[in-house]
Amino acid sequence: MFRIEVQPAGLTFESAPEDTLLHSAQLARVGLPYGCQDGACGSCKCKVLSGQVEQGPHQSSALSAQEEAEGWILSCTSRARSDVVLEARIVAGLADYPVSKMPVRVQALERLADDVMRVRLQLPATSPFRFRAGQYVDVLLRNGDRRSYSMASAPHDLGEPAAVDFHIRHLPGGAFTDHVFGAMKERQIQRIEGPLGTFFLRDDSSKPMIFLGSGTGFAPLKAMLDDWAHKAQTAEAGAPAQRPVTLYWGGRRLSDLYMHDWCEQFAANNPLMRYVPVLSDSAPEGWKGRTGFVHHAVMADFPDLSAHEVYACGVPIMVDSARADFTAKCGLPADAFYADSFVSEADKAKG
Length: 351
Ligand SMILES: Cc1cc2nc3c(=O)[nH]c(=O)nc-3n(C[C@H](O)[C@H](O)[C@H](O)COP(=O)(O)OP(=O)(O)OC[C@H]3O[C@@H](n4cnc5c(N)ncnc54)[C@H](O)[C@@H]3O)c2cc1C
Ligand code: FES
Known about the structure:
Elements lengths: L1 E6 L3 E5 L5 H7 L17 E6 L2 E3 L9 H5 L2 E3 L3 E3 L3 E4 L12 E14 L2 E7 L13 E5 L5 E5 L12 E7 L5 H6 L8 E8 L12 E6 L3 H17 L10 E9 L6 H10 L3 E10 L7 E2 L2 H8 L7 E6 L1 H14 L7 E5 L3 H5 L2
Parallel strand pairs: 1-7, 14-15, 14-18, 15-16, 16-17, 18-19
Antiparallel strand pairs: 1-2, 3-5, 3-7, 4-6, 8-9, 8-13, 9-12, 10-11, 10-13
Bound molecules: flavin-adenine dinucleotide and FE2/S2 (inorganic) cluster.
Organism: Amphibiibacter pelophylacis
Protein name: CDP-6-deoxy-delta-3,4-glucoseen reductase
């Protein structure tokens, strides 16, 4: 066993040579940030201050050769080879949301667009499932593979019997989404594991927020919006003021913004929320929203992001471009950018 120290928090945990640093930290309830857990998104990137770490296979987009040479690692795919001191952000309170595997039942299937299905999964009555808006679960496939999906419901709004919504986009040829758009039927049983990930609102900040989504990257942002509105409605006297939020939702065409009307209605009901739809390919006649890349619309409206927090979710190219441009060109502090990147097997195959 090696001793791993995390600075600047000063937390420690032990890690066996065969275990990844992230897995060991999770067992010790030390909240290192993470997303895909598969070396593909970069959310778990941290720096080795001292000691030997063996970095496992990963995407170069998640950790470049230069970053590796500078001592950066991905905790989800690296293993200790000595005692180690890491520099990493700590996510507070993760241990309050235990991860478990459970059977769920498909309660409802509803097409939100030609290629987007709302899948409502009913949770087991026996085991309470606690999560934070923004987190995801892994669907466990019969062959042992897993696929990740973000919850589109807020924790206060699960209904009776309790069920969670997911927005799933069809990737033709995909192992799970072919099933969702083909043989999946209501009442079918599926196994999931969760809640997972560290993509959720940081309540300890008062900064105005930018929500940035592409396609079904809207799912966790919808959960976060519902949660944000609910917390404001139920806040006690003297609670901090509600933070303003601007949602930028991008797609190629209007049908990709499969809950466009819901967003407009939500903005009409919540004066502190602004909705900016952005289409990159084809806009309908009389389109009043924006066109182009969705993260460029943010940069045009907020050339100075130094006093903001950004929550971004969707395809890796959008998330990576937003992170790079916002920090390099708009003064966004690197630690004010939170993201879940929807990396797929196709992205991983690119290397
Ligand atoms: C944290 C996280 C949250 C996510 N949340 C959501 C969400 O809320 N909604 C959502 O729609 N998606 C989400 N995703 C993406 C999701 O997990 C899946 O990647 C996606 O649904 C595809 O799964 P699949 O099994 O259908 O396709 P896969 O089997 O993964 O295949 C994906 C595509 O790649 C092709 N492909 C497969 N293998 C290869 C290969 N070796 N080489 C080249 N091409 C290949 C397939 O033909 C297919 O077109 C999330 C991902 C992450 C990491
Ligand atoms: S690269 Fe480690 S969590 Fe995604």
